[in-house]
Amino acid sequence: MTEIKSFKPVKLICGIIYSLEDIRKKAVEVLTKRFGQPDLESPSFPFTFTDYYEPQMGKNLKRYFLSFKELISPEELPRIKIETNKLETEFKLYFPEMERPVNLDPGYLTASALVMATTKDFAHRIPLSRGIYAHLELLFRRKGIKLLDWTYPDFRQSEYHDFFLKVRQIYLAQLKSISDGN
Length: 182
Hints:
It contains 4 helices and 9 strands; from the N terminus they run E-H-E-E-H-E-H-E-E-E-E-E-H. By secondary structure, the protein is α+β, with helices and mostly antiparallel strands. The chain has one domain (about 10-180).
């Protein structure tokens, strides 16, 4: 019989789609209060691969990522996605003139993959719990990133890859520190 082992901790990340710098700053503040200090933040990238969010969020959208110092259990992802959805609703209190001020996309990074949470079902998505699915976005290889047929167009950008590879380096160092007992 094969021994069942606990999952390794994973690196929490969150993508933020926004139109105004004040919204991005507020999102970082709120996420930091809830999930702890970030250890890496990306530049803001133009979000031009779809106009899906424009009716609710406006034009000139940008996407920004941050990763958090504290590792989490992968089983926490559904709870975190539900919580970030609630935070999106609360953002209407800070920016009442906007229908949807922010989109928060949590996920996690492992040594081998980037997994994002979603509420939308599709053939390649795995049900987790409470209406939340895991969307396998990217695979990590020794020398880079492997894209998948369903990798979102914006996640195909080399600038995103640069950020996620840096997050992966931090994560691998954290795992080594844990295994070394530090």
